[in-house]
Amino acid sequence: MEAEKMDENEWRYHGEGNKSLVVSHRQRCVVLRFLKFPLNRNKTPEEIFHHLQNIVHFCKHIMKQFFGENYVHHGEVVQLPLDFVKQLCLKIQSERPESRCDKDMDTFSGYAMCLPNLTRLHFVEHRPIICIEIKPKCGFLPFSSYVSQEIKYKVCRYCMHQHLKVAKGKWKRLSKYCPLDLFSGNKQRMHFALTSLLQEAQNNLKIFKNGELIYGCKNNVDSPSDLNELAHHLKPFFFPSNGLVGGPHCTRTILKELIHVITMTLLSSTDNCKAGDMKTVPSSQGWSYCEASAFNKELVRNGKNKMESSGLPRECLLYKTLQAQMLDMLDIEGIYPLYSRIEQYLEEFPKERNMLQIDGPYNESFYEKLLDLSSEDDGTVAYALTKVQQYRVAMTAKDCSIMIALSPCQQDECSAERPVVLTSKSRFTFSVSVLDLDLKPYESIPHQYKLDGKIVSYYLKNTQAKDDSVMSSLLKENEDCTLVLHKINTEIPLRPS
């Protein structure tokens, strides 16, 4: 990226997370990612470069091993003219949501990450493109013996966390989406999960058209999304020339096609996307249902037996994601004591932190330790460190995003080298990628431990309160419906003669 080609007017605000801010180029299929810091607390350029390089190396040498070469785009660290960075910061400041302005974009180091813009397909730059971004979250129930609350074996973390988020005002309504339905591999359950995401996107679903956000949560503001407007945007992609009329029927038909396409691409598997030699983490069909899932509740309500999970194709991205997530074999309740063991060791030997590779380097040695799935604690720091690092990688996989980019193509235009998905009236060439693969911070483990306790205790308290309310209502109804029996005269009076 040459300095003379840096024009801040060609870049636009693309979004941001807790630690970074992203801008995308209007013409080229690239994005720049800048670090953010709390106000008046900046790192040195050398520290920023090292931090960004660590992110690149972690994606390149670790996460590619789990997900496969074609799914992970690690990018590269670039150095930019400081004048350009400062002007760009001024340009986009007004577009940033107020809730994000407690942190400054890094305008002092000149370093940023240059990545491909995954809302576009780099091999079809001049064609219309829709892109669906899904943050699937954790797709299994914990199986650790360290779990202290029985409810965690029955209800998934996402469904429990929904109650706490609504109570705190983060969202106005509970979502019917359950990650276990999406990860089931059963198309009916997957369709239900995707429909639920469309109805209540929160920050788990976004849809882009030619790089522009057209559906989903904007700037983390919970505002109602218009499915009819979304269908209007998507109609030319799915029904290019059939003259389908507008209205609810049209919207339902288009969204049904969209859900079908997303499902097929998520289940797609290609031989050239094989992951590394990671051993499969053991799983059980008994963990495939969440009791809080709206789909599961509907089955129970209708008196049906639970639907068997069809299972995910071993080479699809959902399967790879789930396998990486299941490196969390001990749950945070089993990890926190191991974290405390490491902390106690570092208090005695602070200079050993680098040797333990807590902050990298993320190389082959780091990856090989992740493959040790033994669960017998020998009391050593080495065992504790292995499990903590596995947990951090698992948490990264639980919080990643999957990007599905689709572009319409005619039968004679589609290359045999590109995967294709068919609908009733269209065909699409597509790519599936995974992003947001920064390793979760070692220092965040105490926070995760406390948050886990809050989520579970609030869910138990909230559901118990609802159960008590329902029971109270039933009792009241019974009181209102009490039959009062009165004695009546059974003698039949004689009729006068």
UniProtKB/TrEMBL annotation:
Q: What is its main location?
A: cytoplasm
The keyword Transferase belongs to this UniProt entry's keyword annotation: yes
Give the record's keywords alphabetically: ATP-binding, Cytoplasm, Kinase, Nucleotide-binding, Nucleus, Transferase
- Provide a GO biological process annotation: inositol phosphate biosynthetic process
Reaction equation(s) it catalyzes: 1D-myo-inositol 1,3,4,5,6-pentakisphosphate + ATP = 1D-myo-inositol hexakisphosphate + ADP + H(+)
Q: Which InterPro entries match?
A: Ins_P5_2-kin, IP5_2-K_N_lobe
Pfam families for the chain: Ins_P5_2-kin (PF06090)
List locations, semicolon-separated: Cytoplasm; Nucleus
Q: What is its EC number?
A: 2.7.1.158
The molecular function terms in GO held by this entry are: ATP binding; inositol-1,3,4,5,6-pentakisphosphate 2-kinase activity
Give Gene Ontology CC terms: cytoplasm; nucleus
Record keyword Zinc-finger present = no
> Could you say which enzyme class this protein belongs to?
transferase
Family that this chain belongs to? Belongs to the IPK1 type 2 family.
Record's domain comment? The EXKPK motif is conserved in inositol-pentakisphosphate 2-kinases of both family 1 and 2.
Q: What does this protein do?
A: Phosphorylates Ins(1,3,4,5,6)P5 at position 2 to form Ins(1,2,3,4,5,6)P6 (InsP6 or phytate).
The molecule here is called Inositol-pentakisphosphate 2-kinase
Please name the source species: Varanus komodoensis
